[in-house]
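Technical appendix A lists one of the benchmark inputs used to test multi-chain prediction within the project. The record comprises four sequence entries:
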Amino acid sequence: MKWEDVSDTQCSIARSSAVLSDRWTLLILSDFFLGVRRFEMFQQRLGMSRTTLANRLTRLEEHGVVRLQQYQTNPDRYEYRLTAKGLDLHPVIATIVGWGDKHYAGEDGPPIIHQHKTCGADIHAVLACPECGETIGPSDIVARAREDAPGRPSVERRPVVSA
Amino acid sequence: MKWEDVSDTQCSIARSSAVLSDRWTLLILSDFFLGVRRFEMFQQRLGMSRTTLANRLTRLEEHGVVRLQQYQTNPDRYEYRLTAKGLDLHPVIATIVGWGDKHYAGEDGPPIIHQHKTCGADIHAVLACPECGETIGPSDIVARAREDAPGRPSVERRPVVSA
DNA sequence: GAGGTTAGTCCAAAAATTGGACTTTGTCGA
DNA sequence: TCGACAAAGTCCAATTTTTGGACTAACCTC
């Protein structure tokens, strides 16, 4: 399968991956959530090639994750801002950061600390069911295919957690 | 910056990205959480090249996200299983699927429905603070750098949500 | 008019990905 | 005993992507 075709499937994670899954996009988005908005700042902080950065920002814009907003005239210049759709990615970034904090923090702990504004607790964000409020793990979810994607071999669903 | 060097930083999302951020890894992990364990099954379901699949599985194993487990002898054959560290990625995959469901589901809704086992509700997983139980959005978190990564321009933290 | 700032574009070299054929080890059926 | 089959890869040349650095464009300030 060519990578281009991935985004044509109806699978939610495949379509998301077509936007998010490359070397740099998650890092760019993470910087967005720290308040970064401009090309030069991204480039300096991430150290990535200018070509690829321009391509990624354009792609994020095409997908409606960010939009361009003018911040000066003479000359006209634009910065990138997260859209509502982009802000919806916050849980994704937060859970990835949480995973990294847990498994890759050195002796000194993670370099950035996240605190919950209202209660002050250090956050290691967890998933919760919006209905009953319980926290959710891999075994707490039943995945039910409404229809198998055409041509994709279906999975005989097996326990994910080993005995 | 070469991509290799990204994983050497102490930034949690950078180190996570070094494992997760490429075209296929998130899709592979998603299949793991649906119960897929074997090379041929991944290859058939994802349609990716065998070379890249082998590389990805090896990398996931090197990073301790999956491990090889023998499932037969004569000839010896092994399948891949998520480790505890791999299972910890569940919130990451769940939030990405949730984002895709919200923003890319067609008229018919998402192809796979996720239900909470204990309460039966359809899940659109949300982030919650483990201390106080409140749900968390981008503005509810204070990010505080303990130290700025050496050589990385620091961000003057600006509001992420536009006025 | 020289030098600075910001947001890119352009290019050739290097690295990663692709599709398909091939390998290995051992089954099973005729 | 021979041929076909299965699973989990490896190998290779062609294609695609990424990289680093130089360059451009528009306007400012000194």
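Chain A has a mean pLDDT of 85. The longest strand of chain A covers residues 66-72. Comparable benchmark entries are summarised in Table A2.
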